[in-house]
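FW: tagging you since you asked about this chain on Friday. Here's the raw sequence from the shared folder, copied in full. Didn't touch anything.
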Amino acid sequence: RKIILIISIISLFGYYLVNIQKSSFMQSISIISLFGYYLVNIQKSSFMQSLPEFLNLNNVPYQGVYLFFYIPWIPERNLGIFWEPGLFATFLVIGLLFELFFNNKKISIFRVIIFSLTIFTTQSSAGYLLLFIVSVAFFINFIYCFRRFLYQFYNRKKHYY
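HL: got it, structure written out here
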């Protein structure tokens, strides 16, 4: 029963992440996690330290509620809604991929900045590597599209003379 429940939750979450119209879901999770990160690390809010503490299956203590969690002995690493910063960074990179490559609308610079900033707060080396790879792929794609545009513009100009 637990496996079916876990698969259902992952499928539901995957549906929201994959559906491009729902990309604001990851944006919302990012903004909430950045706000929580700010309260824990910069503001050093006593409210955040008074949040419920619980142990996971590996006896690692977590603090937080519903949409933001942190590990008290490494509060500088942003977990968001996940149990590990690297997993959060991976989902953020997937959200960034959809924003940059599979978005039929204009790219939202705000979302790109929010996702990138949140990836940096996870302090995940895998997240940094994936962000670098996505950035390189985006710039290669941009250069290719720009060259294609220049080629079409140049050829169109020749036909008018």
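FW: The radius of gyration is 20 Å.
HL: agreed, and The beta strands are 53-55, 61-65, 68-70.
FW: great, closing this out.
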